[in-house]
From TrEMBL:
<dbReference type="GO" id="GO:0005886">
    <property type="term" value="C:plasma membrane"/>
</dbReference>
<dbReference type="GO" id="GO:0022857">
    <property type="term" value="F:transmembrane transporter activity"/>
</dbReference>
<feature type="transmembrane region" description="Helical">
    <location>
        <begin position="184"/>
        <end position="207"/>
    </location>
</feature>
<keyword id="KW-0472">Membrane</keyword>
<feature type="compositionally biased region" description="Basic and acidic residues">
    <location>
        <begin position="22"/>
        <end position="41"/>
    </location>
</feature>
<feature type="transmembrane region" description="Helical">
    <location>
        <begin position="213"/>
        <end position="233"/>
    </location>
</feature>
<feature type="transmembrane region" description="Helical">
    <location>
        <begin position="240"/>
        <end position="259"/>
    </location>
</feature>
<feature type="transmembrane region" description="Helical">
    <location>
        <begin position="442"/>
        <end position="463"/>
    </location>
</feature>
<protein>
    <recommendedName>
        <fullName>Major facilitator superfamily (MFS) profile domain-containing protein</fullName>
    </recommendedName>
</protein>
<dbReference type="InterPro" id="IPR036259">
    <property type="entry name" value="MFS_trans_sf"/>
</dbReference>
<feature type="transmembrane region" description="Helical">
    <location>
        <begin position="113"/>
        <end position="131"/>
    </location>
</feature>
<feature type="domain" description="Major facilitator superfamily (MFS) profile">
    <location>
        <begin position="118"/>
        <end position="607"/>
    </location>
</feature>
<feature type="compositionally biased region" description="Basic and acidic residues">
    <location>
        <begin position="639"/>
        <end position="654"/>
    </location>
</feature>
<feature type="region of interest" description="Disordered">
    <location>
        <begin position="629"/>
        <end position="654"/>
    </location>
</feature>
<feature type="region of interest" description="Disordered">
    <location>
        <begin position="1"/>
        <end position="67"/>
    </location>
</feature>
<keyword id="KW-0325">Glycoprotein</keyword>
<feature type="transmembrane region" description="Helical">
    <location>
        <begin position="475"/>
        <end position="496"/>
    </location>
</feature>
């Protein structure tokens, strides 16, 4: 188009507002009443002999009707959005009400009280999911006594972790294709069912099956919790809420052994699972009452069979097979076979081959993949996934083995070891929330991730220096430093994907991150256990522990081994045990260091810059009346500086970036100013400016 063909000016009015159907009708009536004045100010349009639309210059003296707030927009395409009956020049607008309703709802957020109660429900569910990862640790001795199932010990934890880790990514697609609220409630129901089966299990097999089912539900709860935050909270405020949810995950992982021991000693181990039932009920109530999702209508309109096929079941099957073989190799190594045994090598090779097949399948599927390469390889998303793997590996090494250090070296009970760990729990939660507040205030998620990982690396190094005679000042101070660093960094990946990805792609990014968290934690907790056992075995083989049956010590556990060791041999055993735990803590140092390196790859993007685009508000490929002609707002990206093109009376444009402040002062479009010769006004609901 030449400059003379460009649209000089006009008015864009988006109706309805955000306060319900009554406001919609009122705004629609007000808009329709001003049609004549609008036509007078805009002039008339007609197709030229090339089929392109010409607009006559008109003054901007008459402001556009404003619903809530106005922003200045240099824009060549001017839709009049006044409802399906609204038309100009005798032509009827082609409007799709369901798309418009989706756009309107997409920017409605719960009020303060509703949001607080919804967040509380989410935090409780995440706490339970994390709690279930570690709560059986102190209950296992009593479980094995009841079921006479010492050979199944490893499966009580692994069955949960396998399904939780392998099914995380598919929930990323489920929350895109299906209703978010009911998908989350379904996951809660699965988790509750698994917990109930565990609680009433008559034998070991039933308990393992229940743990696997609970892990399946937990995958949806973890991914869904952050997806709900993304839909219920404006982006600028999400870091604080995401930090609160993440802090509950950390709290559950550390409190798990303490609570499991209390239930086992005071009531019965079955209450480790019954406990989930009433607490999850509170989450169900808060979700039903306070959460109103706004799914992408392009996906929610698909037939059920298409949705199921779009889940990439083949990719998920490959991922599950790879995860099962990896977890089996780790579990068998802990219990039965050495790393060099044919069975372990075969499982690891099979895992590697299946993982390669999975990657090739994802490339072939493209955007239809379980983990679309275009999304996963985005710079900040890739860095966030790798960072989650290393950060959670570091965190869970500390969460699992610091209590063992307190029990084995300091002779604390299970309950007192939990008390000694309060410093770590509180520091992690506090600094996670502080980091969230700072990101909300200053906008950038990269600095807390980088600084936090650096501090966490230093703290991990300090923890690895703990000795048998280390005083409270040392282990408290080291915990504060470590937890402060990890707390700052641990949730920044979740914030990053919410900032760099469109809202409809956020579930995939979050699912990938949480899957990597589960993988990192499971792998390095298992690695830590192998290091602990191997170092103790080496000490025994070197005859540094005369008169001590090291296998009996390991089987007795950290709280009971003193009762089977001669008093004169105890000091030597404590030195050897402490040395083994030091080696475990050393594994956390390179993990935190790698998290620091990966954090350097995060983009310096601000949560304050990402605001709703006009295209996202109107919905994809939606048609509206433009002074008697039809305008289509399409999802195709507009090249920088390209003039608006017309064909068969259709104008296709996209509004690349809509940047608003709390005062909604400006919307930027790509390209030189010459492409936008005049300015227009656009009225948008005030809630979009949150």
């Amino acid at each position: 188009m030449t400059s003379s063909d460009e649209i000089s000016t006009s008015d864009i009015t988006l109706t309805p507002g955000t306060d319900g159907a009554s406001d919609y009708r009122q705004d629609l009536e007000k808009t329709n009443q001003k049609d004549s004045r609008r036509d007078a100010s805009l002039g008339h349009s007609s197709p030229n002999e090339d089929g392109e639309i010409q607009r006559h210059n008109s003054s901007m003296n008459s402001p556009a009707p404003t619903l809530d707030k106005e922003i200045q927009l240099g824009v060549p395409a001017v839709p009049m959005l006044g409802g399906s009956r609204h038309a100009h020049a005798g032509k009827e607008s082609k409007k799709r009400p369901h798309r418009f309703e989706a756009a309107r709802d997409s920017h409605e957020y719960p009020g303060s009280l509703a949001l607080a109660l919804l967040t509380l429900g989410i935090c409780l569910s995440v706490f339970l999911v994390s709690l279930d990862r570690t709560i059986v640790a102190t209950a296992i001795p009593r479980i094995t006594d009841d079921f006479h199932s010492s050979d199944d010990v490893g499966w009580y934890g692994s069955a949960y972790l396998i399904t939780a880790g392998a099914l995380q990514p598919i929930y990323g697609r489920i929350f895109i294709l299906f209703n978010i609220k009911w998908s989350f409630l379904f996951a809660l129901g699965i988790f509750e069912l698994g917990s109930l089966i565990c609680g009433v299990a008559p034998n070991s097999v039933a308990l393992i099956v229940g743990r696997a089912i609970a892990g399946w539900g937990s995958a949806g709860i973890l991914t869904g919790s952050f997806v709900i935050v993304a839909h219920a909270v404006p982006l600028q405020r999400r870091p604080v809420f995401s930090a609160a949810v993440g802090a509950m995950f950390g709290l559950g992982a550390i409190v798990g052994p303490l609570l499991g021991g209390a239930f086992t000693d005071l009531v019965t181990w079955r209450w480790c699972f019954y406990f989930n039932l009433p607490v999850c009920g509170a989450t169900v109530v808060s979700m039903i009452i306070f959460f109103r999702p706004h799914n992408d209508v392009r996906e929610s309109d698909k037939p059920l069979l298409e949705k199921i096929l779009a889940l990439d079941l083949t990719g998920n099957l490959l991922l599950i097979v790879a995860a099962v073989m990896l977890f089996l190799a780790l579990q068998f190594n802990e219990q039965y076979w050495a790393w060099g045994s044919a069975r372990i090598v075969g499982l690891l090779v099979g895992c590697g081959i299946t993982a390669i097949l999975f990657v090739l399948w994802q490339r072939r599927q493209g955007d239809k993949a379980l983990l679309p390469p275009r999304i996963i390889l985005q710079r900040s998303v890739a860095a966030s996934c790798l960072g989650a793997f290393f950060i959670y590996g570091t965190f869970l090494v500390h969460a699992y083995y610091l209590p063992i250090w307190f029990q084995a070296i300091k002779n604390d009970t299970a309950i007192m070891s939990g008390v000694s760990l309060i410093t770590y729990v509180a520091g992690n939660a506090l600094f996670s929330i502080i980091a969230g507040i700072s990101v909300s205030k200053f906008g950038y998620f990269a600095p807390p991730a980088i600084i936090g990982a650096a501090i966490g690396t230093v703290g991990s190094g300090l923890l690895s220096t703990l000795q048998v005679d280390s005083g409270a000042g040392q282990w408290v101070g080291y915990q504060v430093i470590t937890s402060a660093g990890l707390g700052m960094a641990i949730q920044q990946g979740v914030i990053a994907v919410q900032t760099v990805l469109p809202l409809e792609q956020v579930p995939i990014g979050i699912g990938a991150i949480i899957s990597m968290q589960s993988l990192g934690g499971a792998v390095f907790v298992s690695v830590g256990n192998n290091i602990l056992q191997n170092i103790l075995d080496q000490a025994s083989a070197a005859e540094n522990l005369p008169g001590i049956d090291i296998k009996a010590v390991i089987a007795a556990g950290a709280t009971q081994f003193r009762s089977i060791v001669p008093e004169q041999s105890l000091p030597a055993l404590l030195v050897a045990y402490n040395y083994a735990l030091q080696r475990v803590f050393i594994t956390a140092i390179p993990l935190a260091g790698l998290a620091f390196i990966v954090a350097l790859g995060l983009e310096w993007r601000s949560v304050r810059d990402k605001k709703p685009t006009l295209e996202a508000a109107l919905g994809p490929s939606t048609e509206y009346s433009v002074n008697g002609e039809t305008l289509e707002v399409s999802q195709s990206r507009r090249r920088s500086g390209e003039s608006v093109r017309t064909a068969e009376s259709r104008e296709k444009t996209s509004f690349e970036t809509a940047r608003t402040s709390l005062r909604c002062e400006l919307v930027d479009l790509p390209g030189p100013e010459a492409a936008y010769p005049r300015q227009s006004q656009i009225s948008i609901p005030g809630s979009w400016c949150d």
